[in-house]
Design a protein that fits this description.
alpha+beta; 166 residues; 3 helices; 7-stranded antiparallel beta sheet; single chain
Length: 166
């Protein structure tokens, strides 16, 4: 049974930030069903680096005011296609999936191209209420070798001068 605070927060949450090990948190769409959060990831679905191999993670959720209200620990379990859990959960996830192109065919697509992970709360929340950090929690941009050139815009015709004096 999940901690009551986790259960209440997750009933309203549609997005959570998943942190695996010491890695950075990744935003992910998730759904709360029967005291656990379910995440569809991998393949053409949302990327959640490291979740497929993880045994545990931390989940942070925001409240109605937009700020973080809770962080909790979870064990990660795979929900395999063709299992009773899959048959029960996959249609519910497909129905709740925002912007789904084919909610009816999604579970069969997920069975071959993606993965469903069940995040089961463990223990008391890690951070909640007064124990939440006061900073923004924003991470600095990650190092990258990518460069975006910013050329000066070209003007093909002469610009008209403003003769109104404004």
């Amino acid at each position: 049974m999940a901690h009551p605070l986790v259960g209440e927060a997750m009933k309203k949450a549609a997005v959570g930030w998943l942190a695996i090990g010491d890695g950075p948190a990744t935003a992910a769409w998730l759904t709360w069903i029967d005291d656990a959060a379910y995440v569809v990831h991998g393949g053409p679905e949302q990327p959640v680096p490291g979740l497929a191999e993880a045994d545990a993670c931390r989940v942070s959720v925001r409240g109605e005011h937009g700020g973080r209200i809770l962080t909790w620990r979870a064990t990660v379990e795979r929900v395999g296609p063709g299992t009773e859990a899959w048959d029960q959960v996959a249609p519910q996830l497909a129905a709740k999936r925002l912007n789904a192109t084919d909610p009816v065919g999604a579970p069969s697509r997920w069975a071959t191209d993606a993965r469903i992970s069940r995040l089961v709360p463990v223990g008391d929340p890690v951070e909640a209420g007064d124990s939440l950090p006061t900073g923004s929690g924003a991470a600095p941009p990650r190092e990258t070798s990518a460069v975006t050139p910013t050329p000066v815009p070209r003007t093909f015709h002469r610009r008209r001068r403003d003769t109104t004096g404004a």
